[in-house]
Amino acid sequence: MHDIVIVGSRCAGAPLAMLLAGKGHDVVVVDRATFPSDTMSTHFVQPAGMTRLAKWGLLDDVFATGCPPITTARMSTGPGEELELEIPLESALPGLAAPRRYLLDKILVDAAVAAGASLAQGVSIDSVIPDGDRIGGVRGHTADGAFEARGRIVVGADGRHSVIAREVAAPFVRDEGSTSAGYYTYYRGLEADGVETYFHDDVFCVVAPTNDELTLVGLAWRQERFADLRRDVEGNFVATLDRLGDIGERTRSAERAERFVGSAELPNYLRKATGPGWALVGDACYHKDPAPADGISDAFRGAEFLADAINEALSGGDETAAMADFERRHAEVAIPLLEAAVRVADFDNTPQQRLEAFIEIRMHDAQESAELVASTSDA
Ligand SMILES: Cc1cc2nc3c(=O)[nH]c(=O)nc-3n(C[C@H](O)[C@H](O)[C@H](O)COP(=O)(O)OP(=O)(O)OC[C@H]3O[C@@H](n4cnc5c(N)ncnc54)[C@H](O)[C@@H]3O)c2cc1C
How many other C-beta atoms lie within 10 A of the C-beta of residue 3? Predict the structure, then answer.
């Protein structure tokens, strides 16, 4: 019997495992994937996420992968309508970054193991094990046979298609649907002007330098266009870039280095995050359209808040009160950011309105980062 069983070991599950194992709790973290491995996601990490990586002592590892520090941003709301700025950064950060997920997630997993968590990779969880009126564990399978783990608290950090959320029938607190669909890929030889973000009439675009001397380019359109776009992904991708300014030309003179990855399932929701013996964190609990590029930072925040609550519950505190406190604290931050993300991703809004919603999120982000730095230096 473990203290905590965590299903999912990427941006939410691995830091949660690291933080709880670091407090001396017996943690097992299970993932159907093995590490290092990639996952479907672009990977620009915003200030709050970078500041948590610094707080956790993982920032040097991230930059040691070779992803360049990003210190400038270009934001565009139409052809010729561009704003260039220095990204305001806390002194702990040499820049923001877009580390590839196969690298970032491995750093997080290694940190969890180094803190004392047991990692079970290549294990697919199928169901929860009830224990009276609580959840008492999980059942699943590996390539070799059955798997079972029991714990006082079971956490679903298992992403958008969370088996734990399904099994406990966690209801939506907010469900704002899905408005966009996108594709991303990587180019070699494409110069990026820091992070470039385009909020044009019917398109969203992000460009950011990443590892392996590649540049990430992501595009999003109205969700209804996805079926049409899929018929000629490359043609539609490049034709759209051509309408955004010189990014089309720069892309044409570069070499595409990877396949296109696409999704039309980019929902906006917040689920009930706790119940007797269980909790949800990361995308399992809270998902937003990726345009504000906040999912990694959101998962880190959720992991930290949940670690505080579980630590309190396992250290003699009142579990129900601690988990209710987590749920309230998480929702208080999550709901306004969800509402703003929906406005960023709604192509019925003008580019200016979408940019304003994006800036609203970034203002929150800057404040959260400053508070994190202040609380870390107080500690
Ligand atoms: C197209 C796209 C672009 C994005 N771009 C960005 C961006 O630029 N910046 C940003 O911050 N965020 C971005 N995001 C969001 C970000 O990817 C997620 O918010 C983040 O990955 C959430 O982390 P997580 O740990 O909750 O879930 P995940 O990263 O999805 O990890 C869940 C883990 O659970 C495991 N798992 C699932 N089910 C089971 C099971 N039954 N048994 C065992 N293991 C299981 C999976 O194998 C996986 O490893 C993007 C998302 C998408 C879809």
Answer: 19
Query: Beta strands 27-31 and 118-121: pairing type?
Result: parallel
Say what the pLDDT of residue 90 is.
82
- E-state strands within 283-330: 286-287
Q: How many Cβ atoms sit within 10 Å of the Cβ of residue 57?
A: 10
Angle at 250 between CA 344 and CA 183, to 5 degrees: 40
Cis? peptide before 94, omega within 30° of 0: no
The pTM of this model reads 0.98
Q: What spacing in Å lies between the alpha carbon of 184 and ligand 1's midpoint?
A: 16
Q: Checking DSSP bridges between strand 124-131 and strand 72-78, what pairing results, if any?
A: unpaired
How deeply is 33 buried, as exposed, middle or buried, from its count of CB atoms within 10 A (0-12, 13-18, 19+)?
middle
Q: Does ligand 1 come within 6 angstroms of the Cβ of 72? A: no
Q: Which residues, listed in sequence order, are joined to residue 235 by a DSSP beta bridge?
A: none
Long-range contacts of 354-361 (CB under 8 A, 24+ apart): 354/77, 354/199, 354/204, 354/291, 355/75, 355/77, 355/199, 358/75, 358/197, 358/199, 358/291, 358/292, 361/292, 361/294, 361/337
Cβ(178) to ligand 1 under 6 A? Answer: no
Question: Which superfamily is assigned to 2-177+266-378 in CATH?
Answer: FAD/NAD(P)-binding domain (3.50.50.60)
Report the amino acid identity of residue 43.
Answer: H
- N-terminal to C-terminal alpha carbon distance within the chain: 33
3-class secondary-structure state, position 70? strand
Beta-sheet pairing, 172-175 with 180-188: unpaired
Question: Is ligand 1 within 6 A of the CB of residue 34?
Answer: no
Cα-atom radius of gyration of the chain, to the nearest Å? 20
Q: Is the CB of 299 under 6 A from ligand 1?
A: yes
pLDDT tens figures, 249-286: 999 999 999 999 999 999 999 999 999 999 999 999 99
**Element holding 49 (H helix, E strand):** helix 47-55
Q: Looking at the chain, how many residues does it have?
A: 379
CA 135 to each of CA 60, 156, 332, 350: distance values in angstroms, whole numbers, following the listed order: 38, 12, 26, 46
Specify the residue for token string 């509402």: 339
Of the chain, the percentage scoring pLDDT greater than 70 comes to 99
